[in-house]
Design a protein that fits this description.
The chain has 418 residues and is α/β, with parallel strands linked by helices. Helices cover 35% and strands 14% of the residues. Helix 1 packs antiparallel against helix 11. The radius of gyration is 21 Å and the shape is globular.
């Protein structure tokens, strides 16, 4: 076990070292230019997944470390684009059984912005990122079927931008009437925000719709984090029992923690990994059965499980997306997607259980090796902060979903050996 912990720690240290040495192209920090979202090259995912019951508009977490001093991402940079797709792939398995995926490249804020003392520069950087997300969403809304149920999603900075988008636009029934739910994981939502924007409605149970699903995972001893500061409170819902009070959920309710790679492959799955309850004071999600040393917190204090928010509750979230969508369809008398029509070859495979054209296993193994190498080279990372000049949240807070891919790979390999 000690050796395994050293392997994971080494992976985290190596990832951070790579991040520090990496370079990325600088984007112009101006608000004069806009992204043309009619150009499909500016979308990481556009209309991916046919015959689904809903649409998913999802915002990528921060993947640009800004090591060249750039305050916003250059989305023409292939390395940045690959990180966008990789970070999204790590989350998409929760949604793709239910929804067709739309996700834009956008000039997100980079890590150094959060430590800047110049508030005007911070605000400018945030505005560039937010305006891109807003423009992308409006293009999607104007050019896709407005009758389809809509799921929103994000993580960390992606969740921050999504809440801002909802604050601005979803008071309009044109958008809110379509909303199944917004899964804005790893962020906070305060009472002040819901009073100012009453259409921001925290989820109350397993199948209510038009709501915000949110939580922040942490150990029982944590009293402050960058997501939820000391003496602060956020709305949350427990993804194991779907309650908003402090009723504990035993780990037997956990349908499966899944650890994913940059291609979205599940490299390790652990049913009943942990139970959880909501801290009545902080509103955070206290996880109860985790060995902190086995799940490194990267740059956070040990016990802040931010980078595992999706992974610890993967199967429960996946099931809930399907349930809420079904509930929305039933409530709104929406026609469900037509069943997939199989080809003769696919029918033969279903009936016999035999692949019509078996894959080359050697080639598949080589592809897996290349994927792991690529993930390590590109250091999966995502950052977020509570320094949102546009929405007035606290300045100076910095979140870094740093090198999650490398850490997740090390953790999942460790699980296989245990």
């Amino acid at each position: 076990m000690k050796a395994s912990k050293k392997i994971i720690a080494a992976a985290a240290a190596a990832a951070i070292s790579i991040c520090a040495a990496a370079t990325s192209s600088c984007a112009e920090n101006t608000t004069s230019s806009t992204i043309d979202y009619s150009d499909m090259d500016n979308w990481a995912f556009w209309e991916q997944g046919e015959d689904k019951d809903a649409d998913l508009f999802i915002i990528c977490p921060t993947v640009d470390m800004g090591n060249d001093g750039n305050y916003n991402s250059d989305i023409t940079n292939e390395k940045i684009r690959n990180k966008f797709v990789g970070a999204l792939n790590m989350e998409l398995g929760i949604y793709t059984d239910t929804a067709t995926v739309y996700s834009p490249y956008y000039r997100q804020m980079t890590f150094p912005v959060y430590g800047l003392e110049d508030e005007a520069t911070k605000e400018n950087s945030y505005s560039i990122a937010y305006n891109d997300v807003r423009d992308a969403f409006l293009y999607y809304s104007e050019n896709c079927d407005e009758s389809r149920p809509l799921i929103l999603a994000g993580f960390s900075q992606g969740s921050d931008l999504m809440i801002h988008l909802m604050s601005e636009l979803f008071g309009d029934e044109k958008y809110s009437d379509r909303l199944v739910a917004a899964y804005v994981i790893g962020w906070s939502l305060t009472e002040e925000q819901t009073e100012k924007y009453p259409w921001l409605k925290p989820a109350q149970d397993e199948t209510d719709t038009g709501v915000i699903v949110m939580f922040n995972s942490e150990a029982e001893h944590i009293t402050s984090s960058l997501m939820v500061g000391e003496d602060k409170h956020t709305y949350s819902i427990n993804p194991l029992n779907w309650k908003t009070d402090s009723t504990p959920a035993d780990k037997s309710l956990n349908k499966g923690a899944c650890f994913t790679d940059y291609d979205g492959n599940i490299t390790s799955e652990i049913p009943e990994l942990t139970g959880a309850y909501i801290d009545p004071k902080r509103g955070t999600l206290k996880v109860t059965d985790i060995d902190e040393a086995s799940y490194p917190a990267a740059i956070f204090d040990e016990g802040i499980f931010h980078i595992y928010d999706y992974q610890f509750f993967f199967r429960d979230l996946q099931e809930n997306v399907a349930k809420r969508t079904a509930a929305y369809i039933a409530e709104n008398d929406v026609d469900e997607a037509a069943p997939e029509v199989l080809t003769d070859e696919e029918l033969t495979e279903e009936e016999t259980g035999v692949d019509v054209e078996p894959e080359d296993e050697t080639a598949a193994e080589e592809e897996t090796d290349e994927t792991a190498a690529a993930a390590e080279e590109s250091e999966v990372s995502a950052a977020a902060d509570n320094s949102n000049p546009a929405t007035g949240t606290e300045p100076g807070a910095v979140l870094l979903f740093i090198a999650a891919g490398m850490i997740m790979l090390a953790v999942s390999k460790n699980r296989k050996k245990m």
